[in-house]
Specification:
The protein is an all-alpha fold. The protein has one domain. The protein is built from five helices and no strands. It has helices spanning about 5-50, 60-65, 70-75, 75-80, 80-105. α1 (about 5-50) packs antiparallel against α5 (about 80-105). It is rod-shaped and about 80 Å long.
């Protein structure tokens, strides 16, 4: 391998590392957003579990207050994909690790 080929290979590797790190950052951002949505749902569920029986259980206002908001309900789609998201993060971390290892070699 010529010096020019080595430099080209190293440059390509650096670009691959940068792309892999960017991809991992994107997936991590999605995971943090999903975790926040799950926390909101858990808080709503916890609050409902602590409510005592009362007349507000029979009012539209009480019903609205105790239901999931449309945003919280929409996050259930995210909840269903949590396992897939965890697997994506694992693969992305492995990719970054392997590329960094190649760079050191």
């Amino acid at each position: 391998m010529t010096d020019k080929d080595r430099k080209l290979h190293r440059g390509t590797l650096l670009v691959q590392i940068e792309d892999a790190e960017d991809g991992l950052g994107f997936i991590r951002g999605n995971a943090i957003s999903a975790a926040k949505a799950l926390e909101q749902i858990a808080d709503r569920l916890r609050r409902n579990a602590l409510l005592e029986p009362s007349p507000s259980d029979f009012t539209p206002e009480g019903d609205i207050e105790n239901r999931l908001t449309p945003d919280e309900f929409a996050s259930f789609e995210t909840v269903a994909s949590v396992s897939a998201m965890i697997e994506k993060m694992k693969r992305a971390r492995q990719d970054v690790f392997n590329l960094r290892k190649l760079k050191r070699a």
